[in-house]
C-alpha cells in the first residue's frame, strides 16, 4: 500500500460509495423510484463511450461483433428511453398488495432531482471505469471492498456533519429504517460491490453496467406485486427492448473474446517464425485486443 494507491482508493470510494450514492438518494427524495431506475439505464451507454475513449473497449465496425456491441448499446438505450417517456395503457392494479407506499407530491422537485441523478450516473460510470485501473494495482477484491466501504462511510459521515446539523439524523429506530440500513450494508455495499469488482476484473466495466437495466424491470415487477403501484404497458415494452439490446451486446462480446482466445492459442505463421520481430508485434497486438475486450 503506497500513498498514491491510497489516494486512488480514496477517490474510488468517493465516486462509488459516498458522493454517487448520496446524490442518488437525494434524487430519490425529489422524484420517484420508477423514474430513478429508468434514468440509471443510461449508465451502460455512458460507460461504453468512456471505455472507447480510454481504449478499454475495442469496437471494430467492420466486424460483426463490433456491430453487435454498438447495436446492443443503442437498442438498450432505446428501451431505457421507452421506459422513461412512454407510459402506455395502465395494467389493472393487483388487489391486496401487502405494503402500500404512496409518494408525497409536496416533496417532489423534478428539476433538482434530475440534475442530482444525472450527476450520479456520470460519477457512477467513471467509478466503473476507474475500477479497471485500480484492480491492476490492487487485485484483492475482498479487502478492496472493505476499504471502499470504510472510506465511503467516513466520507458520508463528514457530508452529514456539514449538511445535517440535527442530532435526530443519527438516531436509528428498530423499524423498517433499521432493516433498510442492514440490507444496504450487507447486500448493496458488501456483496454487490464485491461481485461488481470481480466481474469488472473478469469481463470489463461495460459488461457489468449492461445488466443495470434489469433493475428497472425488477423494480416495476416488485412494486406492482408488493407495493400496489401501477404497471403500464410502456414498462413491459421497454423492458423487452432492454433485454434484447442487453443480450445482443453480450453475444457480441462473447464471440469477440472467443476469437481473441483462438488467435492467442494458434501457432505462429511461417513469416512469424522466420522473423521474430513480426511475431512480437503480432503477440503485442493480440494482447492489446484482449485487454480492450
Automatic annotation (TrEMBL):
Q: GO terms for molecular function, please? A: transmembrane transporter activity
- Give TM segment ranges: 5-26, 32-54, 66-86, 110-130, 142-164, 176-199, 206-227, 233-252
Boundaries of every EamA domain copy: 112-250
Q: Which UniProt keywords apply?
A: Membrane, Transmembrane, Transmembrane helix
> Is Transmembrane among the key words of this record?
yes
Q: Which regions are flagged for Basic and acidic residues bias?
A: 274-293
Question: Membrane topology for this entry?
Answer: Multi-pass membrane protein
Record-given protein name: WAT1-related protein
